[in-house]
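Re: the request from the purification team.
They wanted to know what the chain is likely to look like in 3D before they choose a buffer screen. I agreed to run a prediction and write the result into the notebook, where they can find it.
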Amino acid sequence: MYVEENFKEYLDDLAAKKPAPGGGSAAAAVGALGVSLLSMVANFTVGKEKYKDVEAEMQELLSSAEKLRAELQKLVDEDVAVYQNVSAAYRMPKESDAQKAARSEAIEAALKAAMQVPLATCRSLFEAGKLCEPLLEKGNMNLVSDVGVAAEFIAAGFVSALMNVEINLSGIKDESLVANIRRELSPKEKEIQKMREKVVKGTREKI
């Protein structure tokens, strides 16, 4: 859908009075931009005589970044699709007790499904964050600022996706699921912020 269209159309729809795309999709898009920058840095390092000692590591980092970029690109569109299901569930009739029960069940299922998309974004960006420091230390020095920008985007995408996880969790009644997701993401958020601070500081020191 949007990934195959032009960027202006995506931004126009993001700005429009439409339920989707929204913050969850934008979080994945921002993250994808950050990971794309990591791929660029790796691409400008691979094959360079000056960096032949880290050739194998750069190839591996590039492969990892490209897999994550492909996943995040899919999530840009998937978030739009799942949010439409949430909207449909909330529009269900609620006149009778039976209708209320069916609506409540549909909302719970839709929120759980919708939550999975930003959760996947968080997980992908957590893995992407691990690529920043090696690229800062060993990647092509001419692109050091791009690593810093990537770290900022990846952290911003993670936190933005996390907010979308949280807003879905707030409507989910399954307390065990809610607790497990929060238990997983809380330490990951701390690690992402540590990564961002370290990489941005390192970038500025190298510039």
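For the purification team: The mean pLDDT is 95.
Please add any questions underneath this entry.
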